[in-house]
Amino acid sequence: MQKMAELLGLRDECGEGTSGAPALAGSCLADNRLNLDVYPDGCRRFLQLFKEQQGEVVQVEFLRLSSNDCLLDTTLGSLPHLKHLKSLVLKGGHARDEFGSCQHGSLTSLPPDFGNLSCLTHLDLSFNRLSTLPSCILHLPSLSVLLVSHNSLVTLPEDFGRLSKLTFFSAMKNQLKDLPQSIGELSMLQDLDLSENALELLPEEVGNLHNCTELDLSGNRLLSIPDSLANLKSLRRLHLHSNLLVTVPASLASLPNLSRLDLQNNCLRAIPAEIQTLPFVHIRGNPLGETEPSPQADKSSTRRLKRLFLASGEGSFTVTSEGCRVVLACGIHFYFPPGAASDPLRIHFRSLPPDPQWVKLRHHDVLLSRVLELQPHGVQFQQEVQIWMPYISPQTPHQHEVVVRTFSGQSWSDLKTRVKRKRKSKKCVAHCCVLHFSWFLVVSRLVQNECKVPAEGTLLFSSVDPNIKVIFPPGVTKEPRSVKLQVLPVSAEEIQEITANAGCRASPLLYLSQDSTVDFLKPVRIQLPLPPGVTGLNLDQSRLHILHGDLEGQTWNDITSEVMLEFTHLYAVFEVTHFSWYWLWYTTKTYIGGIAKKVYERLRLYQVNFIALQRKKDPEQVLLQCVPKHKVDPVLKKLQDRYRGPEPSDMVEMFEGEQFFAAFERGISIDMDRPDCVDGRLSFIFYSHLKNMKEIYVTSPVDRKGQAVKGQVSFYRGAVPDSIPEDASRRRKGPDSLWLATLPIKLPQLKPRWDENPGPLYGFSFPPLNLGNAETGYLTQANLLSIAGRVGADWQSIGLNLGLTYQQIERIGYNNREDLNKQILDMLFSWAQQNSKDPGCVSKLITAMKESGRQDIAEELP
Fold it and tell me: Positions of the site: Cleavage (predicted)?
């Protein structure tokens, strides 16, 4: 275990400040390990070491490199020289795309002499671009663990069974359509994961895997499974959910060690009684008891669609020509009518945080949901698919309406949307129909009225304020064109507060747009209500101004002298030939354009406060949030039982979709490797109806034992958003103008240095550990942190084998649902705390690793 602890010093010892190859080699090569996948230039570092310290490098037994590295191809040629290599990780996923998703690595093949690595037992090529399994892998005589998940494999080699020592094989999330018969020759295989592929049939030879304890075939296209699976007497867990199974062999009930059988979300209308009575079988999401409709029967009235309920963590499902209803764990619903998909189609989905770089909100839009991505993009359905998306109810329902907005790959457009509130949960959902999949989100926009203007002319009025009308006379256009109208009411109180002038009044803001770039052939007549308190009886025409604004609201021009104004007792009427913003003002001011510009800017701003709270039981856990002013008190009341901290910051103003940063200062720091960390600061995007909240662990890099650390967190503006008013943009320039607020953070006790007692990893910090006994060896915090870095997607299986309950695993997965590293750490340290006084816990951990197919980790434990 001391070796693992030394390994944790790698990042500090091999950091950017290291100079000189000998020093680099001396520290990095401690204990024959090289973990270089944490560096963006890890391959360059490896090549430097290999060139200048080759004698030591060739002794390396454990090597990790990122396949997102641009020098990977050059590095591959050197790897066959590492004759002592036991474990090699060449994973992708270390870089992220514009949507925040892991990018696959560039690895497509391996050099032929790679098969000469006779000592290699563990090989991880996940998150790459392999379309075929490199043939040299079949020549690795000692290989026992092989991971090729998240690639593009369509098939496996016919002689795949040559890997006779293989105990663990994962090919999840590929495109495998069949398996070679030789797979039955893998007599030592204990864990086989083929989930999320396109398998339609299994060879009978799968029944020869007599040592297999876990078999995951979920998320495929299997219609049936062979009876030979009943020969797998060592099998403990069999995952068959989310397939197309119509039958399962009753002989599965005779498997003596089976403790979990997952048959959820299939097409099973009947399940053998022997299986149905098993206490560990899961059958939800099957059309049990339903009968096939007769040819003469009306299919629409006799067939109930299959319902799929997906658990948290699942990311795909299969749709067949029979159709189905799908419910995601996040509350999103789908309805695929019969015939929507002609062939079985695998649907992948994910929830993405909105990024203002590509989620472009229009003026006065409010974002109400995260982004839902559905793949495959662009596939045309034969019938419309219905989608229900939950959203946060907006505060201004009268002047705004909720719509689902979709991204075509180039631009966003709004879908015809219906909204409703669920009776039981009181949650709001937006419903739309689509013929193809892409990206979707829910927004609140200004209520939009539209019509088609024919050559004969027509009338368009606002549903927000029916007194606002647009009259199109005959001959106004040659070809029909679409026209849209939106209205933004502005109260007299708002005008008075912003202008500090009781004499200023204004009508509702009117926005007109059309789908043609050509002006109308005849003037269009617009009717606006007079500002509040003004009537035809007391009207002073010299105080009335018609303002025309550009599309971005940057300029407001007084066009009163350019139009013919008519008045009635309640309305002002004027004519225009092109469309944009129009605003009717009543004031004694001569120049009104600047005042209107200021008011328009303020109407788009939100008044917010920042809060920084520390968890009472663990002050190193800090909650940061940007809260609209009117929500501050309810938010603090909800958090006061678990958190304490200073009063909220002073009020500041922000635009919807504006970026800001949080920087910890004066002796407090965070994990700089977080994906949301930019130049040492946490990045946020303000959306008025989303939480704008992050909970992180902090520490101090300076050793001041026994003394409290009085630090602070400061908030700064980010990049200037697109299309904000010119004055606001000017105020957001310069170093002093970027600062927003500062709040105190106090650590009651400083944590030791990382190299003395490892602290936070991926945003977590944990109390010191010393598990085990002198005979079996000890496990420290450093040991568990090192183990956590290698667990990967197996964490749930390992957790169950360690004795954690399914409920605990589900809760850990949900609480850290957006971060795999946090799930792993939470699982390991939850187990460690429960077993802190058990002298046999080290042996339990070794056994759990072996039972989970992670012999590579088990071999390194004491």
Answer: 437-438, 579-580
Would 28-152 and 187-289 be classified into the same CATH topology?
yes
Does the pLDDT at position 364 exceed 80? yes
CA distance 506 to 531: 5
CA–CA separation, 686 and 505 (whole Å): 31
Give the tokens for residue 282. Answer: 């899961």
For Cα atoms 3, 6, 7, give the angle at the middle one, nearest 5 degrees.
90
Domain boundaries 187-289, CATH class: alpha beta
Residues annotated catalytic, as ranges: 436, 438, 578, 580
Of the options 2.60.220.30, 3.30.70.2660, 3.40.50.670, 3.20.20.70, the CATH number for the domain spanning 448-590: 2.60.220.30
**Which are the contacts of 779, defined by CB distance < 8 A and separation ≥ 6?**
1, 769, 770, 771, 772, 832, 841, 842, 845, 861, 862
pTM, two decimals, is 0.59
Q: Which CATH number fits domain 604-722+736-747: 3.50.50.60, 2.10.110.10, 2.60.40.2660, 4.10.410.60?
A: 2.60.40.2660
Instruction: Report pLDDT digits (tens) over 655-710.
Output: 888 889 998 888 888 766 667 788 888 888 898 888 888 888 787 765 555 577 88
What are 3-44's pLDDT values in tens digits?
A: 333 332 333 333 333 334 443 444 345 457 777 766 677 888
Can you tell me the distance from the alpha carbon of 824 to that of 143, in angstroms, rounded to the nearest whole number?
A: 25
**What's the confidence (pLDDT) of residue 760?**
47
Which pLDDT belongs to residue 600? 85
Residue in 4, 73, 10, 77 with CA at minimum distance from that of residue 37: 10
Rg (CA), the chain: 32
